[in-house]
Fold:
Amino acid sequence: MPRGVESAAGPRPPTMADVAQRAGVSHQTVSRVLSDHPHVREVTRAEVLRAIEELGYRRNSSARALVTRRTLTLGVVACHPTLFGPASTLLGLEEAARDEGYMVSTVNLRHYTRTALSDAIDHLRDRGVEGIVVIVPQREAVSALTELKVPLPMVTVEGGHDLKIPSVSVDQQLGARLATGHLLATGHPTVWHVAGPMDWLEAEARCTGWRAALEEAGAPVPEPLVGDWTPLSGYRIGQELAGRVAMDAAQRRAQGPTAVFVANDQMALGVLRALREAGMSVPDDVAVVGFDDIPEAEFFLPPLTTIRQNFTAVGQASISLLVSLLDTQATRRDERVVIPPRLVIRASSAAALR
Amino acid sequence: MPRGVESAAGPRPPTMADVAQRAGVSHQTVSRVLSDHPHVREVTRAEVLRAIEELGYRRNSSARALVTRRTLTLGVVACHPTLFGPASTLLGLEEAARDEGYMVSTVNLRHYTRTALSDAIDHLRDRGVEGIVVIVPQREAVSALTELKVPLPMVTVEGGHDLKIPSVSVDQQLGARLATGHLLATGHPTVWHVAGPMDWLEAEARCTGWRAALEEAGAPVPEPLVGDWTPLSGYRIGQELAGRVAMDAAQRRAQGPTAVFVANDQMALGVLRALREAGMSVPDDVAVVGFDDIPEAEFFLPPLTTIRQNFTAVGQASISLLVSLLDTQATRRDERVVIPPRLVIRASSAAALR
DNA sequence: AGAGCGATTGTGAACGCTAACAGGAGGCAA
DNA sequence: TTGCCTCCTGTTAGCGTTCACAATCGCTCT
Structure:
């Protein structure tokens, strides 16, 4: 049966041999043209290209991968991919990978569990990815990763530095110091902290940075209040804070919270609402600083001072790290990339900007 | 040179032949065990599985794809993947695909252009995806898609219904009618509209639904105000609206905007801020309804009445549609899935809830 | 003239898997 | 016993590439 006239599954896509025949050369010459080999006569090249064009030929990536042992595919495991941070990282990462000639396959986790992570990595490995970027910021996840002994180049994002796995992260402690320092510098005796869930490395690091900044400044360190990143948890904690302000004001004033550093913008939104509902003014009664700089932050009431993270840079760095691992054949290297965040001052912390 | 002792690139991963040898069977029997064929003796199966386990064997997906002509990979082209809607759709979509045994490769577009779309699809085709989901809601994109004549099963999300490409979408017009109807029902003489950019099908459909609802109710139809989905554009338009309220109040009262239907929650956030800055109360002076129900909406000041879209369902539906196309070998079928949105009433539109 | 070299092309053998077919063992009917 | 069917297993031939090697041509160099 002649090629292209298969009956069952319709005409098959043309192969290199088809192109070769049409161009009057061998399949190998076609391959050479496609791979930009030198030593192909210009006339021949043109002839081959014409045949390719006419047939609408495309190289079969599976056949190619089989013989070259390169799938040109990278895997990503991402947790909470609807949040602004992970989504932005994913975007930068995919673009960078594409620029490097790789395709990206993603597995999303709604919630982290050890088996979910393990299954996700299995799924990617089954499909032959050459390397994996893991964006799962729970501390537990990161240690699970080392135990999994994945024989593939791997990079973690926000994965902490105590591991034998290369990582890319924003300097969370620095961000927390910037936020806390800013509030101290504007005259507050101390700064309260609304933290994220403590099984997240980012939450832990922000808390550590906040505490360090206070201690260095000789300021008292209040008990941190722990939320779960959601606006709702911020709202509840905000109500509690408002209660303290009122109570302390009645009893021995000037001891209550006058400044709060919230570990992310969404919780900060909840805090803002709770404070306002309690009749408090931000920043006059209480100054608030968030973390992330989500697009909405500038339009909160009042606009939120926050710490901006360059998520795109994180994504790009994770790919360039992974690709370098691939190129050097090293399965793991102790490399870390740390990206500094920066403070964006808006009205929620500075009375002058109100 | 014996297998597994290659010098250059380290030991190669074991092959089916290695497993076969270790288990004392032929490679074909190994294949049969892996494919759950009947007619394999239980003892043999166990023996093979043990050998697989011991060697840590995994099937080579490229070799498999080469002979079966199935890559088990689906492609996604997504625009604006950091927005809550697209990100959620992506999440639901990937989970559904994984359940069906497919892997998902994504190409993100920061901004839509015809060539960017075309390149994205090329990139996916080069890697042998079996089908493509396109989440690019600009009208232009959708028509470009038909002209591209991609010989692959394809599904669009929010791609409109006038095309020969199957699509999944939320009933945007219904959403707009729900929002507008709700505002009319609470006693407002008419409803203003802050629209999204008019080259987006969703913006157009929401505008159409809003207009239809007004006309059916015999209410006057103000000129829609067009934004670009960002909080900033909402803020600017909000200032304009506030100006009108003030002006009309001075001149011939009761004619100015008392209710606004904003085409997405982010712009609504900007509108809320502008109104508040102008000294207006929401919902007393002006009622506001948004669209999307992003997680933050409940914590805006005041909490935002909005239209909730089930993005997860959209993602799932797009995969089940695409998979059914794959199974039936049909390259294109005129199928559409329409998912109804629902109204979530909060304080921004109902004085009683304030 | 013959050797030698670079440029250009072709030939054959993998890559690791599945599909198709062949074949042996055992059971049962004739 | 023979024949045939069912269960189980092995053998062979691709799938569409790339890689290693050989072959040819037209030169230049000795």
Residues 15-17, 27-28, 31, 35, 59-68 of chain A lie near DNA strand D (CB under 10 Å from a C1'). Residues 1-9 of chain A have pLDDT under 50 and may be disordered.
